[in-house]
Amino acid sequence: MADTVLERRRDSGEAGSPVVATSSPSPAKTPSRSLGTPGPGPSGDTSNATASRTERRTQSFADLEAIVEALHLRAQTLIDKINQKRSNDQTLMEEFKNSLTLKVEVLCKSLEEKMHEQFEQNTMHLQAKVQELTDVMQRISHLQEELRHVCKTLTTVYEDLGLQPEMS
Description:
Largest sheet: none
Radius of gyration: 54 Å
Helix content: over 70%
Number of strands: 0
Distance between the termini: 113 Å
Number of helices: 2
Order of helices and strands: HH
Strand content: under 5%
Shape: rod-shaped
Protein backbone atom coordinates (compact mmCIF):
# COMPACT_ATOMS: atom_id res chain seq x y z
CA MET A 1 0.00 0.00 0.00
CA ALA A 2 2.82 2.40 0.90
CA ASP A 3 4.57 1.44 -2.33
CA THR A 4 1.51 2.47 -4.32
CA VAL A 5 1.24 5.86 -2.59
CA LEU A 6 4.92 6.58 -3.15
CA GLU A 7 4.76 5.45 -6.76
CA ARG A 8 1.82 7.82 -7.35
CA ARG A 9 3.74 10.72 -5.86
CA ARG A 10 6.77 9.97 -7.99
CA ASP A 11 4.70 9.56 -11.17
CA SER A 12 2.61 12.69 -10.59
CA GLY A 13 5.70 14.80 -9.93
CA GLU A 14 4.19 16.59 -6.94
CA ALA A 15 6.25 19.60 -6.01
CA GLY A 16 8.04 19.30 -2.72
CA SER A 17 7.35 15.60 -2.38
CA PRO A 18 10.45 13.48 -2.19
CA VAL A 19 10.97 10.50 -4.42
CA VAL A 20 11.55 7.35 -2.43
CA ALA A 21 12.49 4.08 -4.03
CA THR A 22 9.98 1.39 -3.07
CA SER A 23 12.09 -1.57 -3.97
CA SER A 24 15.74 -2.18 -4.57
CA PRO A 25 16.97 0.41 -7.06
CA SER A 26 17.95 -0.76 -10.48
CA PRO A 27 21.55 -0.24 -11.56
CA ALA A 28 20.54 2.17 -14.30
CA LYS A 29 18.88 4.59 -11.84
CA THR A 30 21.70 4.52 -9.26
CA PRO A 31 24.16 7.45 -9.61
CA SER A 32 27.62 6.28 -10.56
CA ARG A 33 29.69 8.59 -8.37
CA SER A 34 32.18 7.31 -5.94
CA LEU A 35 31.99 8.67 -2.43
CA GLY A 36 35.58 9.88 -2.49
CA THR A 37 35.41 12.17 -5.53
CA PRO A 38 33.61 15.44 -5.16
CA GLY A 39 31.21 16.56 -7.84
CA PRO A 40 31.65 19.65 -9.95
CA GLY A 41 31.66 23.04 -8.27
CA PRO A 42 33.18 24.43 -5.12
CA SER A 43 33.33 22.38 -1.94
CA GLY A 44 30.76 24.66 -0.27
CA ASP A 45 28.20 23.61 -2.85
CA THR A 46 28.91 20.00 -2.05
CA SER A 47 28.16 20.47 1.63
CA ASN A 48 24.95 22.36 0.76
CA ALA A 49 23.98 19.59 -1.66
CA THR A 50 24.75 16.97 0.94
CA ALA A 51 22.73 18.82 3.53
CA SER A 52 19.90 19.20 1.04
CA ARG A 53 19.98 15.47 0.26
CA THR A 54 20.08 14.62 3.95
CA GLU A 55 17.14 16.92 4.55
CA ARG A 56 15.21 15.31 1.68
CA ARG A 57 15.99 11.83 3.00
CA THR A 58 14.87 12.85 6.48
CA GLN A 59 11.71 14.31 4.99
CA SER A 60 11.21 11.13 2.91
CA PHE A 61 11.55 8.95 5.99
CA ALA A 62 9.18 11.21 7.89
CA ASP A 63 6.67 10.95 5.05
CA LEU A 64 7.15 7.19 4.94
CA GLU A 65 6.67 6.93 8.69
CA ALA A 66 3.52 9.05 8.43
CA ILE A 67 2.18 6.77 5.71
CA VAL A 68 3.01 3.66 7.72
CA GLU A 69 1.37 5.19 10.80
CA ALA A 70 -1.72 6.09 8.76
CA LEU A 71 -1.87 2.54 7.43
CA HIS A 72 -1.43 1.19 10.93
CA LEU A 73 -4.25 3.39 12.22
CA ARG A 74 -6.49 2.39 9.32
CA ALA A 75 -5.75 -1.30 9.91
CA GLN A 76 -6.47 -0.86 13.62
CA THR A 77 -9.73 0.92 12.78
CA LEU A 78 -10.75 -1.94 10.49
CA ILE A 79 -9.86 -4.49 13.16
CA ASP A 80 -11.90 -2.53 15.71
CA LYS A 81 -14.86 -2.42 13.30
CA ILE A 82 -14.59 -6.16 12.70
CA ASN A 83 -14.46 -6.82 16.44
CA GLN A 84 -17.46 -4.52 17.00
CA LYS A 85 -19.41 -6.33 14.26
CA ARG A 86 -18.49 -9.68 15.80
CA SER A 87 -19.68 -8.43 19.16
CA ASN A 88 -22.92 -7.21 17.58
CA ASP A 89 -23.32 -10.56 15.82
CA GLN A 90 -22.76 -12.39 19.10
CA THR A 91 -25.36 -10.20 20.82
CA LEU A 92 -27.79 -10.76 17.97
CA MET A 93 -27.21 -14.51 18.15
CA GLU A 94 -27.82 -14.52 21.91
CA GLU A 95 -31.05 -12.54 21.45
CA PHE A 96 -32.12 -14.92 18.68
CA LYS A 97 -31.31 -17.91 20.87
CA ASN A 98 -33.28 -16.48 23.80
CA SER A 99 -36.22 -15.61 21.56
CA LEU A 100 -36.18 -19.04 19.96
CA THR A 101 -35.93 -20.75 23.35
CA LEU A 102 -38.92 -18.75 24.61
CA LYS A 103 -40.96 -19.60 21.52
CA VAL A 104 -40.05 -23.29 21.78
CA GLU A 105 -41.05 -23.31 25.46
CA VAL A 106 -44.40 -21.71 24.62
CA LEU A 107 -44.93 -24.18 21.78
CA CYS A 108 -44.00 -27.14 24.01
CA LYS A 109 -46.36 -25.96 26.74
CA SER A 110 -49.17 -25.58 24.20
CA LEU A 111 -48.42 -29.03 22.79
CA GLU A 112 -48.37 -30.53 26.27
CA GLU A 113 -51.75 -28.96 27.09
CA LYS A 114 -53.24 -30.32 23.87
CA MET A 115 -51.80 -33.76 24.64
CA HIS A 116 -53.40 -33.70 28.11
CA GLU A 117 -56.71 -32.66 26.58
CA GLN A 118 -56.43 -35.51 24.08
CA PHE A 119 -55.47 -37.92 26.87
CA GLU A 120 -58.55 -36.87 28.84
CA GLN A 121 -60.79 -37.33 25.80
CA ASN A 122 -59.22 -40.72 25.07
CA THR A 123 -59.54 -41.70 28.73
CA MET A 124 -63.24 -40.78 28.79
CA HIS A 125 -63.78 -42.64 25.51
CA LEU A 126 -61.88 -45.67 26.81
CA GLN A 127 -63.79 -45.62 30.09
CA ALA A 128 -67.06 -45.59 28.17
CA LYS A 129 -65.87 -48.54 26.05
CA VAL A 130 -64.61 -50.41 29.12
CA GLN A 131 -67.92 -49.80 30.85
CA GLU A 132 -69.74 -51.05 27.77
CA LEU A 133 -67.48 -54.12 27.67
CA THR A 134 -68.09 -54.71 31.37
CA ASP A 135 -71.85 -54.50 30.79
CA VAL A 136 -71.62 -56.94 27.86
CA MET A 137 -69.48 -59.33 29.92
CA GLN A 138 -72.03 -59.19 32.76
CA ARG A 139 -74.87 -59.94 30.30
CA ILE A 140 -72.85 -62.81 28.87
CA SER A 141 -72.20 -64.10 32.37
CA HIS A 142 -75.89 -63.75 33.19
CA LEU A 143 -76.87 -65.48 29.91
CA GLN A 144 -74.41 -68.31 30.65
CA GLU A 145 -76.03 -68.74 34.03
CA GLU A 146 -79.47 -68.82 32.43
CA LEU A 147 -78.22 -71.27 29.80
CA ARG A 148 -76.87 -73.60 32.52
CA HIS A 149 -80.16 -73.34 34.29
CA VAL A 150 -82.05 -74.15 31.06
CA CYS A 151 -79.69 -77.08 30.39
CA LYS A 152 -80.29 -78.45 33.91
CA THR A 153 -84.01 -78.00 33.43
CA LEU A 154 -83.94 -79.82 30.08
CA THR A 155 -81.84 -82.60 31.55
CA THR A 156 -84.36 -82.95 34.33
CA VAL A 157 -87.25 -82.98 31.85
CA TYR A 158 -85.55 -85.68 29.75
CA GLU A 159 -84.87 -87.75 32.83
CA ASP A 160 -88.48 -87.38 33.93
CA LEU A 161 -89.62 -88.51 30.52
CA GLY A 162 -87.17 -91.35 30.62
CA LEU A 163 -85.38 -90.26 27.50
CA GLN A 164 -81.71 -90.01 26.94
CA PRO A 165 -80.66 -86.45 26.04
CA GLU A 166 -78.81 -86.18 22.78
CA MET A 167 -75.48 -84.61 23.06
CA SER A 168 -73.81 -83.41 20.01
